[in-house]
Every structure is written in C-alpha cells, then in structure tokens.
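Input record (one chain):
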Amino acid sequence: MPPGTAPFLSDLIKKMKSNQTMRLQLRGYAGSAKGSPSQARRISLFRALSVRTYLMKQGIRSTRMDVRALGNKVKEGTLDRVDIEVKK
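The corresponding structure, as predicted from the sequence alone:
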C-alpha cells in the first residue's frame, strides 16, 4: 500500500463494520508507454485484489467488494492506482 493510505483505509473499515449494507467497488489501473494492454490489465487486477485482500484481513467480507481491472483505461489522474467507490 502506498504511504498515507492507512488512515483512509482505517476510516473506511470502521464505516463498513458499522454499516453492514455498505459495498465497495475497487477499480485497479496500471500502465506505461512500454506495456501492452493485457499486461496493464493483469497488473491492475493484482493491485485491486491486493486492496481487497487487505480489507478482508481486517474483517470485511469479500462478498461486499466488487473488483474491476481497467488496465490503462484512465480518463484522468495517475495510471498506477486503485480507486475505491462506496456503493450503498
């Protein structure tokens, strides 16, 4: 996990534990000018699954999280990231 994400994830975990109907969508992105689209998709999947695994180790059920690997399909922002969207 990148530095500085621990407070955000800690807060998110507390909210999810207090609201059992809250769901997340984890969208992974990755890419570079040299990498192929399939390689970017694999890396983005690995990133999103890493976040899901971390949340699962903190007691969040996997059935409350959807994972999407979007590879290098970035509209804005940095290429190498995982976006977390709260679904209610």
